Automatic annotation (TrEMBL):
Residues 8-163 form the UspA domain. PANTHER family: ADENINE NUCLEOTIDE ALPHA HYDROLASES-LIKE SUPERFAMILY PROTEIN (PTHR31964). This is UspA domain-containing protein. InterPro entries: Rossmann-like_a/b/a_fold (IPR014729), Universal_stress_UspA (IPR006015), UspA (IPR006016). It holds the Pfam family Usp. CDD domains: USP_At3g01520-like.
């Protein structure tokens, strides 16, 4: 009786950073490499969910005086720019996956990236969560926070943090 191979489900978090695209390439080249050597090349090696989280737009501005609310035209313009940016990011990610033996789906969320990435990984029961690392110093991580650091401590599945190659790190 032939053993049925379980399809690996991996979620890769993508933003506009080169580090996140490097993490996607690394995932395809390293986690799904065995499928390329498989005798059945028609079978997909697994499933990748590419998740992108848009930051919510705050429709008000705090100048030195009273609160100023953004006009409807400004809100529409910002939302359209966000949608175009997301489309460009996902298009680039899908191009990277184009000739690989994996099924790919995309997921767009809006809110706080670190929380939503962990929640989505849990709800979708992924086998791995993959995030890129921007290589922030400990001081910058303490002040700015780090999505990868947060996910490492809060994700309910195994997480893989992919650092960029040394030549691209500062």
């Amino acid at each position: 009786m032939a053993e049925e191979r379980k399809t690996m489900k991996v979620m890769v978090a993508i933003d506009e950073s080169d580090g996140s695209f490097y993490a996607l390439k690394w995932t395809l080249d390293n986690l799904f490499m065995s499928a390329l050597a498989s005798p059945d090349l028609n079978q997909d090696a697994g499933m990748i969910t590419i998740v992108h989280v848009q930051q919510p737009f705050q429709p008000y501005i705090y100048p030195a005086g009273p609160v100023i609310y953004a006009t409807t035209t400004v809100l529409e313009s910002v939302r359209k720019a966000q949608e175009e940016n997301t489309a460009a990011i996902l298009s680039r990610a899908l191009q990277i996956c184009k000739d690989k033996p994996v099924k790919v789906e995309t997921l767009i969320l809006e809110g706080e990236p670190k929380d939503l990435i962990c929640q989505a990984a849990e709800q979708m029961h992924v086998d791995f969560l993959v995030v890129g690392s921007r290589g922030l110093s400990k001081i910058k991580r303490a002040f700015l926070g780090s999505v990868s650091d947060y996910c490492a401590h809060h994700a309910k599945c195994p997480i893989l943090i992919v650092k960029p190659p040394k030549e691209s790190r500062e």
